[in-house]
Structure formats: C-alpha cells, structure tokens
Amino acid sequence: MTPAADHTELLALRDALRDFAEARDWGQFHTPKNLAMALIGEAAEVVEHFQWRTAEESARLPDPDCAEVALELADVLLYLVRLADVLDIDLADAARRKLAINEARYPAEKAHGRADKYTRL
Amino acid sequence: MTPAADHTELLALRDALRDFAEARDWGQFHTPKNLAMALIGEAAEVVEHFQWRTAEESARLPDPDCAEVALELADVLLYLVRLADVLDIDLADAARRKLAINEARYPAEKAHGRADKYTRL
Amino acid sequence: MTPAADHTELLALRDALRDFAEARDWGQFHTPKNLAMALIGEAAEVVEHFQWRTAEESARLPDPDCAEVALELADVLLYLVRLADVLDIDLADAARRKLAINEARYPAEKAHGRADKYTRL
Amino acid sequence: MTPAADHTELLALRDALRDFAEARDWGQFHTPKNLAMALIGEAAEVVEHFQWRTAEESARLPDPDCAEVALELADVLLYLVRLADVLDIDLADAARRKLAINEARYPAEKAHGRADKYTRL
C-alpha cells in the first residue's frame, strides 16, 4: 500500500476505536482473549440471520434484514480492527499477504470450479 | 468517506476477491449462508490461539504465534469483505454508522470504566 | 428423569472428564472462559464440514466425512459436559427445562411449518 | 454403554426433539447445514456470558447469570443431539470413542500440567 497522506479507512477506524475505548476507560476489558470472544460472538450474530433461510432466501434478504446484517458485519469489523490494534498487527498488510498466499495455494488453472480444493482449507 | 480517486483499502480488497473468485469459478460457493459459515470458522481459528492462554500470555504472544494470528485475522477480513460484497453492503459505511450508534448508546460520561454497561450488548 | 441406580451417560462422561483432567493436572486450564472458547472452537469444526456443501450434499455425507463429523460432535459434547461440571450446572436437568420452555414458546398448533416464528429466537 | 431397557438421557432427548420437530413440521429447516449454524449460534451465546468477565468472575457467576448460562448450555445440547440424529450419528458412542482417543493422544505421564501439549489440538 502506497504511503498516502490521507488516512486510510482501516487506520481511521483503528483510531476512532482507540478514542472510543479510552474515553470510557474500557481498555481494561480489551484483552486479546476478550476481544477474540467478542469477535466470534458478532460473527455468530451474522450466522443467525441465515441459519433457517434457504440459500436462495439468503441471497434475497428483505431490506430491513439486510440493514440489520450490515450492522452485524460492522460489529465484526470493529472488533477485528480493535483486536489487530491491541495485538499490534497491521491488518491491511496481513490481508494483502494472505491474498497472495491464497493465489499461490489455489492456482486458477487448477482450482477452477472445483469444490474439493476449496473445501480443503 | 470522501469520494476519492484513489482506491480505498476495503474496495481494493473487495475487487481483488471478486477477481480471485471469478478466475476460479468459485462464485457458486459464495452464497451468503456459506460465507457466513466460513466467516465464523475463521473467527474460531482466532479464538483457538487464545483459549488456553492466560490474559497476560495472550497479550505477550511469541512472534511466530503473532504471525499466525495475523493471518487468521486476515482470513476473517477477507471473508467479511466478500460477504458484504455478495450482499451488496457498503462495509465501510456500515462501520462508521455503527460507531456512531455506539457513541450514542454508551455516552462516555456514563459508561466510563463500567463493566455492566459494556456487557449489556 | 427417574433417579436410577445406574450411572447415566452424561454423569459417566462428567466423571470420566474429571478423571482425565485431574490425571493431567489440566484443571488449571479449565476455567469457564477457556472452556467456553474451546466449546465454540469445536462447534466451528462441525460447521467447517458443511460450509461449502449444498444442503443436499450435507445430508448425504460420504462415510469417511461422517466419521469425522461424529468425532467433532463428540468434542462439542465433551467440552459441554466439562463446562457444565465446572459451573456446577446439571446439564440433563437444564435440557429438560429448556425443552419445556420451547414447547410453551412454540405451541404446535401455531408454529406448524412456519419459518418466521422459528427464526425469531 | 450397556444395552438397558430404560431409555438413556441422550436417546430420550433425541426422541423428544423428533416429536417436537414433527409436531411443528420443522424437519424441513433441520438440514445439517442449518443445525450446524444453530449449534454454533448457541455456543456463541455461552461465550457472550464470559467475554467481559475476568477468569475469576467467570468462576463465580451470580445465580441469575448462572441460571441463564444453564439454559444456553441446554440449547447447545439440544441442537447437538438433533444434529447427530439427523446425521444418523450415535453421539454417546462417538463421545466414548473420542475420550479413548484423547487418553491415548495425551498420556497422563507426559501431558501432566503442560500447556503446550494441551494447546496443540
């Protein structure tokens, strides 16, 4: 990522969450263990929106439900950014490196349309 | 987010994931249900790194473990961005709106240092 | 459940897990926080077996996969029994009470075949 | 488990859940994918009770909270039993087999008090 003058999204969120926690003296609760638990809790709230829906219904959510899911996805992102910060991990850099790893692990010409490769995580 | 000419991080990841899936014809597996399941699976891999560690050990991870956790956090971000895209949800916008909701729900002067408010999600 | 002389399954598992942990001096790791994290980690391993499969494929797992899923379900049960024990919770009794609550919350004549009630947990 | 005339706990729960689902025509929603998602959702509700608590607070839950956790553990057990049934898996047998595998994998004399072995799941 080119070093730009403008603040990137993930860094802006990181800073906003630092301010948020500091203003409330909530840093004491933000241990990596706790944040990891909060992260998976929010991921579960995303899962709940789809658990009784069919694959088709999941792809055509009514607007109110989609709006709720958007906020649950937001919760996951917020805890993810906060956890990365507390662990001093560069999240954007890690994401780019993982993409590169995936590109190498699943070469397009070999992995095309195949479920078996894709399921063997 | 100001409409800027340069591609933002989250949009860049979104586009990279679109290309990745298309090149492998994996869109068929990327239903919201499946992606939600993959998302929580990756969150669980983050949790696993901390489940037997104490709060103190969790905050002082050895470098190799921290490097592994970085890639697990990356996996969560990648599936999160992909799921938002498939649902046509603007993730960055949702995150900013949720931050604002949290600011209003937990006013700094009332929520300061208190665990009870913070636990009542 | 009638008070029987023979040891019930859940109590037998509870005792076996107590012996297992004690013999290895692992009680120190079995705090409720840690066990809750381990529990959800195992649930995630169950989810992983189905995340890329269609609903139909999920219902017709090949034998080797089914055997693996059986052991993942076992892992969930073992951590569940251990966590209940550490919290001094009677798991079998709680299950019966929750069934009764569900019976009252979703009367058969009203809830028949309806997804909306069932999704509003 | 000795073949006994009296119905075991897990089998009794299995049958009660079969009746419950049938009376409401909810079998259509009980695909393995959906049940796996419901299972992890309930595990997340257990995790939520502990995420902001310290290890010590987690071990000394106030009675009302403990009562709530008991019902969450019950939810996990109910979905676990239901999922095993839908997959035609003998849950009690799988649990006993997994215990035996764990006994062999972590010999007491070698695994005693050591966190490293225990974390390498």
From TrEMBL, chains A, B, C, D:
CDD domains: NTP-PPase_RS21-C6_like
One Gene Ontology molecular-function label: nucleoside triphosphate diphosphatase activity
InterPro entries: dCTP_Pyrophosphatase, DCTPP
Pfam families: MazG-like (PF12643)
Domain of life: Bacteria
Alphabetical list of PANTHER family matching this protein: DCTP PYROPHOSPHATASE 1
UniProt-recorded name of the protein: Nucleotide pyrophosphohydrolase
